[in-house]
Design a protein that fits this description.
260 residues; alpha+beta; Deoxyribonuclease I, Chain A; six-stranded mixed β-sheet
Length: 260
């Protein structure tokens, strides 16, 4: 089984990219973040035509939004409010084998890494704290995927020294993510298959005129698994080609293959 994850930055605007990715890579399940659409306007028919007949949505107008589209049956599960303001940032489903699949879009956190001066940064840290409490109580095999908006390792950013004060790579965010990971012994599948210090990026800013040449990227997108599920992971891929397709997202998809 192949599980993919992608911050698409508007599923309606980039539906052609998503469909091309599905045709070329053929994942069994695709988790999307930043769909930016209410559930009634989600382009479900386009996915069904490709065989992704099982669709679970958690959307809102214009912002955020997460979705799971699948060729295998999934059961509706949770929509947890880790943001504590009803933003559509989480969607959890259960797979036929009993494994939970959690799709999350963690807040970016604004520009200033100071809770007192930037409420968005405080919201991000509180979001992670709520996730950590959830993770600590989790007792079933689980895959956790999405846009975490944190690049934790020095080799997850183009310049560790220059980005230490930049939101997404600050020590306080990394420590919060470390606490989340430790709360259930999560395995970072990306780094299991591409160990540090090899640089790995999943996001390149639109501000970079030639993103590939400058390669000023960050690894903001992640796929984690509880140890029992990680043990049967067979491969993990960062699919960078879509960053060069017409009207690209600034994020690229991740795909993990499991021996189920």
């Amino acid at each position: 089984m192949k599980i993919a994850s992608w911050n698409i930055n508007s599923v309606r605007f980039r539906i052609d990219l998503v469909l091309r990715f599905l045709r070329e890579r053929e994942p069994d399940i695709l988790c999307l973040q930043e769909t930016k659409v209410v559930d009634a306007d989600f382009p479900a028919d386009a996915f069904r035509e490709l065989g992704y007949k099982h669709i679970v949505l958690h959307g809102q107008p214009s912002y955020h939004g997460v979705a799971v589209v699948s060729r295998v049956p999934v059961t509706k599960d949770d929509r947890l409010d880790w943001q504590a303001n009803r933003e559509a940032r989480h969607l959890g489903v259960r797979l036929p084998n009993g494994v939970r699949l959690e799709n999350v879009y963690i807040p970016a956190g604004g520009d200033l890494p100071d809770r007192a001066l930037n409420p968005k940064f405080g919201q991000k840290l509180d979001f992670l704290d709520r996730m950590t409490r959830w993770s600590d109580a989790l007792d079933v095999p689980t895959v956790l995927v999405g846009d975490f908006n944190i690049a934790p390792l020095p080799s997850d950013v183009w310049s560790h020294r220059q980005l230490l004060g930049t939101v997404s790579h600050t020590p306080i965010e990394v420590e919060a993510l470390d606490r989340l990971q430790a709360a259930n012994d999560w395995v970072d599948l990306g780094r299991r298959f591409q160990p540090p210090p090899e640089p790995v990026f999943t996001w390149w800013s639109y501000r970079n005129k030639d993103w590939a040449a400058s390669n000023r990227g960050r690894r903001l997108d992640h796929q984690w698994a509880t140890p029992d599920v990680a043990a049967i992971a067979r491969a993990h891929h960062v699919v960078i080609e879509p960053r060069d397709w017409p009207k690209p997202s600034d994020h690229v998809p991740l795909v993990t293959e499991f021996d189920w």
